[in-house]
Prior knowledge:
Layout: H1 2-20, H2 34-37, E1 53-57, H3 58-62, H4 69-73, E2 80-81, E3 97-98, E4 110-114, E5 117-118, E6 137-144, E7 158-164, E8 173-180, E9 184-191, E10 194-195, E11 198-209, E12 229-243, E13 246-260, E14 267-282, E15 286-303, E16 310-316, E17 319-329, E18 336-356, E19 362-385, E20 388-410, E21 415-420, E22 424-440, E23 443-454, H5 458-462, E24 465-467, E25 470-473, E26 481-495, E27 498-519, E28 522-544, E29 547-561, E30 578-586, E31 593-601, E32 604-605, E33 613-614, E34 617-629, E35 632-639, E36 647-651, E37 654-657, E38 662-669
Parallel strand pairs: 4-7, 25-28
Antiparallel strand pairs: 1-6, 2-3, 4-5, 6-7, 8-9, 8-38, 9-11, 10-11, 11-12, 12-13, 13-14, 14-15, 15-16, 15-17, 16-18, 17-18, 18-19, 19-20, 20-21, 20-22, 22-23, 23-26, 24-25, 26-27, 27-28, 28-29, 29-30, 30-31, 31-34, 32-33, 34-35, 35-38, 36-37
Amino acid sequence: MSARTARLVLLASIAWPFAAQGQEAPPSPDRDDDIVVLGGGLDLPPGTPAYGTTEINRDRLTNDASGRVEDVLADVAGFQQFRRSDSRSANPSAQGATLRGLGGNASSRTLVLLDGVPIADPFFGYLPFNALVPDRLAGVRVTRGGGSGPFGAGAVAGTIELVSAGRRDLPLFDAEALYGSRDAQSFSASLTPDLGGGFATVSGKFERGDGFQTTPDSQRVSATVPARYRDWSASARAVASINANTELQFHGLLFGDNRTLRFRGADSSSEGEDASVRLVHRGSWQVDALAYVQARNFTNKVISATSFKLTLNQRNTPATGIGGKIEVRPPVGPDNVLRIGGDFRLADGELFEDAYAASGAVTARRNAGGNSSVTGLFVEDDWTLGKLVVTGGARIDRWTLTDGFFHERNGAGVSTSNLAFPNRSGTEFTGRGGLLYRPVKAVALRAAAYTGFRLPTLNELYRPFTVFPVTTQANANLKPERLRGVEAGVDVTPGAGLTLSGTVFYNKLADAIANVTIGTNLRRRQNVESIAATGVEASVVWRRGAMMVSASYAYSDSKVHAPGSKLDGLVPAQSPRHAASGTIAWAPKAGPMLSATLRYVGDQYEDDLQTGKLPAATTVDLFGKMPIARGFSAVVRAENVLDATVLTRNQAGSIDLGTPRTLWIGVRFGG
């Protein structure tokens, strides 16, 4: 990955001198303390609540029993990964995210952004959750549905915006060390000094564990091993004031992740090197411009469930992503926020893999890959008309799929397949609009309609894969997915500290990409006519003094429409109808903190034909923090404290299990 590393170094070398030498900015007349706002983007437009956004604050992120972002996101009922496993016991390539019961095939149908930068793997579309450390975040904003708007293509199920912690969130130094069940260890630390008129922060995290047995007792063999994991990440971020209204932000991220799943030798790894530069100007003409580069790789070894020998070695999957965005807000009046801009994303990647016979001899060597791009222009406007806010926008995207190929040679090196797929391109028009009306201060009525699209990933197009004994074929002819949706909701604040929200929605995903069964132990990625989801979402948040209670519930009645197919009328794979989450916390300003979280996920099915049922599961997590000395706190965490059985895979009776009871104890400084 030396060429990709060179790109990151070049980007960093351009950005860092500006960040390191920023001059102190004079106080702004409309802000009490410029240092507080450093590191963020432009203000949210007033029409944002029309799309029913949900926010998760920093306290919730940093005080969860698992310490993992994907688990905290489950506070928003309806959020789900492709499988129920978290980022310690899932194959990394299965960590796609979706919302509203729209199902998936491990590629993410939800656009996930970190400070405006898409974080999904350029080749696979999965999310590197282990590289997202809660301590580095100020908060999360989740929009279920909502179309793509100015965020870019890919948000067919919604958008998750992660915001990095700013200076007001971070002490000069903080650290945490934890020890848990099955010899699990977790260490993290960050250093955040002031730097001229801005700040810099450097952080690192390392964790490992012997892992739990994902295989039930009755199915274990001599080759069965626990789900061992070892991962690390390091991040550097600098923010500098250029003048009173302008700042430059640099962010760099390195991570590595190694896991073993089910059988001895079934090892996977993922690694990444990301960098971005962002310029934010908050003058009369507001500007938000960013550029980023990603270098990723993935490896995976597949072990036979009968011979327990290596059958497939996906030994190298290098991928690169390059992109950028610019948004301009011209001064059009105090009651009007106009956003104009464009964005682009380029992705390239390829797969190198070897297949083996039971004897250990190589039977095939495969190489596949290609390039994709999406370039878009958008305009969006928010009008405030007294108690009514009207928002609307449109975008046009030009996409390309080029240089797709699949090569295969047998063990003797003789070519058996040499395919070059035709280049394809297209144009997508999408838009969204919403109304937000506040008849009284305590009530907000909202309605929205939207469209969106998602381009197939390089993985879906060109890479076949095996989760033994099932092989899933790629499909270079996949079409983009297209969403149409409507929703309406109400947010009520009947009293101080109490907020109630409810939403009804209808979303239809045309040309949905699914893993379709075409034979015994054989599937193929295909476009089905559509997936339609109708549902209800409800939430409540109550705060009084040191007490906080929050709860969220989602009901999604989703069905596959595929006339003439066995899939017609079935529920999409991996899509529960019911999901709920609730947290109660006691957190006085000074003293101990205690919280308990209950999560429920309803029945769902492993596959497209509903042959493998994953029963409903309810888990309870506990978290506690007790000050013990100046700056130091003792921390205790309990995941799945009732030791509920959670099935994460059921392939013809071959079962994988989720996280059992896991206990942690440790110490935290500065947080």
